[in-house]
């Protein structure tokens, strides 16, 4: 009985372009990975992917829902409405009129404080609200780009707060510690802020790439380290000034120039944020590096099989994201504040997560979401002054927006929208007849 001969060509299960034996240990690992079944996607990654895949219509409807619920809270807590509700059955129209007056006046004041104040004494005060909105939005846009870029690379960068702080610290030190020509000094301070944030984020990237430590846990811990670090830094002899808790002011040569004269605070940082948003779009959509980052974010195992170094992309994605967040801190120190304080980051790093989700991690959406949150923060002050509506309503609106953005099925249910991929039209009569005949 003769032994069957081996086929001269590759078997159907074998790729003719793939070597029969791996040439190295790394190739063996890749080949082994390619043979294994793809593990099920984790709930967190699948959830973020679903949120980022929502349409702009769903995002707009989520904002509308938040505004409507905010209006309900305004009406319920307004004293005039409560008084009119006491005789609702006698004069229901008075209750409805008081409710409309309370909600409309509150939102009108919010608009006037965020965009244009028609009741201002002069033109300068009338247009100042929109400049304040853009000023507040500048660090939110930069930090939102940071979180969004990491999301698209498959990483949860929850450490924006710490990266903003480290960027602010390094930018402030270069700002008041050196004496350089104007343009060079400013550029060096900005680069220092980016380096500070990139270094702080790269720690989490290296730990994840080398040890598998989850970036969420590491970045949250680094947030706390940075918060206590800046508390100590502002008290050191190198940073401390005559005012307790405030560093020395940065030099004029390192300040971001204003786009408008005093009393406007809008500075060149807003233009920088727009330029970087365009740069992030080009990086993620048009460059080879961006393709690799997106490939790792979509399927790390398939990207490794294709020859992409997942570890290197992880570290690089975190470093780039941290650099953007560091620039957010630098814009606060070099543009808005002019000095370093322990509260320089505020809640920028945490609000950036909401901004990135609201903008679906896309640069244009992040810019618009940052401006929206800047408008809420700027308009809330005037709303409280003119109508007595508590400033906490702004936080409630932001919370409602987060809730609805994070729950797309809830928004679809409220607005009776079809699920993705579901047919929106009824089958034609001919289709129904054919289906009935097939069943018979």
Automatic annotation (TrEMBL):
It is found in: Cell membrane. The chain crosses the membrane at residues 55-76, 133-151, 158-178, 184-204, 216-240, 264-284, 305-327, 339-358, 365-383, 395-415. Pfam families: BPD_transp_2. Keywords: Cell membrane, Membrane, Transmembrane, Transmembrane helix. GO terms for molecular function: transmembrane transporter activity. Residues 1-41, 421-440 are annotated as: Disordered. Residues 23-34 have a biased composition (Low complexity). It is a multi-pass membrane protein. One of its GO terms (cellular component) is plasma membrane. This is ABC transporter permease. It comes from Litorihabitans aurantiacus.
């Amino acid at each position: 009985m003769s032994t069957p001969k081996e086929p001269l060509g590759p078997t159907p299960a074998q790729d003719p372009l793939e070597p029969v034996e791996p040439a190295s240990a790394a190739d063996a690992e890749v080949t082994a990975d390619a043979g294994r079944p793809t593990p099920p996607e984790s709930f967190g990654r699948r959830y973020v992917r679903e949120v980022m895949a929502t349409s702009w219509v769903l995002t707009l409807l989520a904002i509308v829902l938040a505004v409507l619920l905010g209006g309900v809270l305004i009406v319920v807590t307004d004293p005039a409405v409560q008084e009119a509700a006491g005789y609702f059955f006698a004069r229901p129209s008075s209750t409805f009129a008081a409710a409309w007056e309370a909600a409309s006046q509150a939102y009108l004041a919010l608009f006037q404080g965020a965009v244009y104040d028609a009741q201002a004494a002069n033109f300068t005060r009338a247009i100042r609200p929109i400049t304040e909105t853009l000023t507040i939005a500048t660090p939110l846009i930069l930090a939102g780009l940071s979180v969004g870029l990491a999301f698209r690379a498959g990483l949860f960068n929850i450490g924006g707060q710490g990266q903003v702080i480290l960027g602010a610290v390094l930018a402030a030190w270069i700002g008041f510690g050196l004496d350089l020509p104007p343009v060079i000094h400013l550029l060096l301070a900005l680069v220092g802020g980016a380096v500070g944030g990139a270094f702080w984020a790269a720690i989490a990237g290296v730990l994840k790439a080398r040890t598998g430590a989850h970036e969420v846990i590491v970045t949250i811990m680094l947030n706390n380290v940075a918060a206590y670090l800046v508390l100590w830094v502002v008290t050191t002899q190198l940073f401390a000034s005559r005012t307790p808790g405030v560093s020395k002011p940065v030099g004029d040569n390192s300040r971001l120039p204003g786009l408008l004269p005093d009393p406007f605070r809008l500075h060149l940082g807003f233009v920088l944020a727009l330029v970087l948003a365009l740069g992030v779009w080009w990086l993620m959509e048009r460059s080879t590096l961006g393709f690799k980052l997106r490939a790792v974010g979509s399927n790390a195992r398939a990207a490794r099989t294709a020859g992409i170094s997942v570890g290197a992309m992880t570290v690089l994605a975190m470093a780039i994201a941290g650099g953007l967040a560091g620039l957010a801190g630098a814009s606060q120190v070099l543009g808005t504040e002019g000095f370093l304080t322990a509260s320089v980051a505020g809640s920028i790093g945490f609000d950036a997560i909401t901004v990135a989700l609201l903008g679906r991690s896309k640069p244009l959406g992040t810019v618009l979401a940052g401006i929206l949150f800047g408008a809420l923060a700027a308009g809330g002050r005037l709303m409280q002054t003119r109508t007595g509506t508590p400033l906490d309503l702004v936080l409630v609106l932001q919370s409602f927006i987060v809730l609805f953005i994070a729950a797309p099925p809830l928004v679809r249910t409220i607005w009776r929208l079809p699920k993705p991929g579901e047919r929106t039209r009824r089958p034609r009569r001919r289709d129904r007849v054919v289906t009935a005949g097939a069943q018979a």
